[in-house]
Write a structure and sequence with these properties.
Pfam families: RibD_C. The chain is α/β, with parallel strands linked by helices and 189 residues long. It has a domain of 112 residues: Dihydrofolate Reductase, subunit A (3-Layer(aba) Sandwich). The chain is built from 5 helices and 10 strands; from the N terminus they run ββααβαββαβαββββ. The protein has an 8-stranded mixed beta sheet.
Length: 189
């Protein structure tokens, strides 16, 4: 069965973006990039991967899920940022048609449960915090690219809420000289 993987960069203070949704402070150069790009090449925008010569096999991820704010970060330059994947944007906004991209107002939990029943590679939860919170109970695996910086405020990994603790087991951590660490957890069932 396909897994829902929340693969995301996060600051030391638990933010996936700064107070104005900025994410450009995250390190995109350094010794961490080669290892991360090799394993998670499917999570790089199609045009950027092509420009850098990074293969995108579709073996790791077959589908990417985004909220409207996450998708809008690439607009207008990249209306279909991950054309190599099935892209689903959860939004009530009207978006122009784009290659391999669909928008929906459907319940994200119902969509994910249906996707998990289909054959294929894993499902990547790209962001943001509101969507991650809605899908919290469906997340099978967390892969956090912990960045050595503090935003002080911003978009949290999950939106604040009153919910029960959900245990995850540590799978691995890989630390790079750049200060970035890649940590993976799997949901304890």
């Amino acid at each position: 069965m396909r897994e829902l993987v929340y693969y995301v960069a996060v600051s030391l203070d638990g933010c996936i973006a700064g107070p104005q949704d900025q994410f450009d402070a995250f390190l995109v150069e350094g010794d961490h990039m080669e290892g991360i790009n090799e394993e998670f090449g499917d999570a790089i925008p199609t045009d950027i991967a092509a420009h850098l010569g990074i293969p995108q096999s579709g073996e790791r991820f077959g589908t990417v899920l985004m909220g409207a704010t996450t998708h809008a970060m690439g607009l207008p330059a990249m209306p279909s940022p991950y054309r190599h994947l099935e892209q689903i944007v959860f939004t009530h906004r009207e978006l122009p048609p784009a290659e391999n991209l669909r928008t929906t107002t459907e319940d994200p939990v119902a969509v994910v449960r249906a996707l998990k029943e289909q054959p294929g590679a894993d499902i990547w939860l790209c962001g943001g915090a509101q969507l991650a919170t809605q899908l919290r109970g469906e997340i099978d695996r967390l892969v956090l690219k912990r960045q050595p910086l503090l935003f002080g405020a911003g978009v949290p990994l999950f939106a604040p809420g009153d919910y029960e603790p959900e245990p995850f087991a540590h799978v691995r951590t890989r630390t790079f000289d750049s200060g970035v660490s890649l940590t993976e957890y799997v949901r304890e069932r």
